[in-house]
Amino acid sequence: MKSRIPVVLLACGSFNPITNMHLRLFEVARDHLHQTAVPELKLLCGADVLKTFQTPHLWKDAHIQEIVEKFGLVCVGRAGHDPERSILGLPILQKYRHNVHLAREPVQNEISATYIRRALSQGQSVKYLLPDAVIDYIKEHNLYTKDSSWKDNSTQRNEGKTSGGGPATPPPPSSA
């Protein structure tokens, strides 16, 4: 057995809510890097995030270059996305292709946070798609339900904050 090298992975994406497949990204990337003996800090992303590098005004070219030139990235494949095509579609990624590692997930990843949010808003079970602690948190905070304001990020960000030193008060129910 090869000796394991230290690996530090920095992930980006919404992870909203975090799914077991999001957590799986770390395992797949770590295994890939251990097999290829590539240490150091890497950006970890799914193929859907890699594709966003081509979205105008979302990423600065200088930031993409700094990531792939100085650190590199590990991209885990995802159903419906072609990371090779994303690399070929962006000259910066082509130039630093040696620093872009494509890891293959042996288990097809078709779970998306969008699907999870939709299922929850329709009252469907997401058991075994999310860690139990995440499901408990979602239920406890009434997230992603028809009655919740999950589309309004400001409500979730401000939840639990206080003003004037008093306890946080939930927003009043809508009269719609």
Overview of the structural elements:
It contains eight helices and four strands; from the N terminus they run E-H-E-H-H-E-H-H-E-H-H-H. The chain is α/β, with parallel strands linked by helices and 176 residues long. A four-stranded parallel sheet has the order 1-2-3-4.
SSE blueprint:
Elements: E1 7-11, H1 20-36, E2 40-46, H2 47-51, H3 61-71, E3 73-76, H4 83-88, H5 91-95, E4 100-103, H6 113-121, H7 132-140, H8 153-158
Parallel strand pairs: 1-2, 2-3, 3-4
In short:
The chain has helices at 20-36, 47-51, 61-71, 83-88, 91-95, 113-121, 132-140, 153-158; strands spanning 7-11, 40-46, 73-76, 100-103.
Structural class: alpha/beta
The major beta sheet can be summarized as:
4 strands, parallel
What is the element string, with H for helices and E for strands? EHEHHEHHEHHH
> What topology, given as strand order, has the largest sheet?
1-2-3-4
Tell me the number of helical segments per DSSP (H or I, 4 or more residues long).
8
The residue fraction in helices comes out at 25-40%
User: Which regions have little confidence, pLDDT < 50, spanning 5+ residues?
Assistant: 152-176
The rough form would be described as globular
Tell me the span between the first and last alpha carbons: 63 Å
Radius of gyration: 19 Å
Number of strands: 4
Mean pLDDT, rounded to whole units? 76
Question: What fraction of the residues are assigned to beta strands by DSSP?
Answer: 5-15%
